[in-house]
């Protein structure tokens, strides 16, 4: 179908359709049935229009009510504004009058102040002229004094220069004299130094002879002191033993026994002899203790054999072996450590120093 034919058909339908719809009910129903999907029914449309109309009426009523409320508030606000405006007008008039009054007062004060300033300015002008004249007068006086002082300084400088030259010459003379005296003194000191050197050598020889004699005397005294020390050591051991026994028995509830027995087989000393050893009993613990003024390496072995002698004879094990001595031979310490003997003494450093001193004196 061409475009021309389609246009002609559309034109025919437009011309004939209204007449056909009016005259042919079945065709009209057919057309309505076809176009039903493109428009709502009449009843539905009327209901929708009625609903919209009611909504418009409600909106109109709300709007009228709000307008009345707003009009009332506007009238109240307008009245309030008018009242405040009148009050502000009154306050403004009062303020304006107050400002005018203050302005007049300030103007009067300004005129008075201006007049006062003018008066003071004139007074200051006069004082300035007087001060200027006074300064000029003082400047002239100071200038004169400065010239006089300058002349005085020049005079004193010349005098000081002359005195300095004289002093310099005097110092040079004294320096030369001191140089001569120093040379003489130096020669005298050298002479005396040589004499003192000779005397020193003679004194040194005398001192060496005295030291040799003192060394012989010291050796004799050392032997004497050693003998006294041995005797003192025996007494000290017994005193310390008795004191220690009293302290630990009375204060700590420990029993101290001075064990004395006879070694018929010579197990301790290699020959039959009496055995003495201190025993401390604390609860079930048995401690062998040796208190001596000095302990040597052989003394350590002897103490250990005493302990073994006691254990063998009485079938009791000694739990600890203790040595209490102010002087323990350093060679005895490894033995004690090996045998498990506990040592209680003073500082090892002190012992070593004393031994070294003894060796030095002996040599």
TrEMBL record:
This is DUF3782 domain-containing protein. Keywords: Coiled coil. Pfam families: DUF3782, PDDEXK_10. Residues 42-138 form a coiled coil. It comes from the Bacteria. InterPro entries: DUF3782, PDDEXK_10.
